[in-house]
Amino acid sequence: MRYAALGPGKRIRPVLTLAVAEMLGARDLDPVVDLGVAVELVHACSLVLDDLPAMDDAELRRGRPTTHRAFGEEVALLAAFALLNRAYSLVAGSAGRLALSRHSPEEMIHRLACAIGTGGMIGGPRPRVIHLSGI
After folding, report:
1. Distance in angstroms (rounded) separating the CA atoms of residues 63 and 66
2. How far is CA 40 from CA 13, 21, 47, 53, 86, in A?
3. What are the backbone angles phi and psi of residue 97, rounded to the nearest 5°?
4. What is the pTM of this model?
5. pLDDT tens digits along 122-134
């Protein structure tokens, strides 16, 4: 988990999350950090899974051996699922501490699940539909 989550370039999402929260006037940044880390953990999970032999079978990621090359496919799978579960745990914990009036903790977890699921990351990009009826 540590190898996949703390590699090069793995702090940009939490930093962006903090910058947006500060722009919006957030006072308590601790739960915001957790939300940014959760998004980074989801991204790390997706890269570990994408690099596996059944997918891209990548040897390197940012100049380092991919997680499955460094630790074996079995460990990489366990690490990916652990990263994903830790992300959900961070969102659940931090969403309650944020006490947002607009989104409940349950809704924030639901939004994360939707973003990761078949309508989001797992489903992949959707082709744009171009309507020609007005031509």
Report:
1. 9
2. 6, 16, 11, 23, 11
3. -75, -25
4. 0.86
5. 888 776 666 565 5
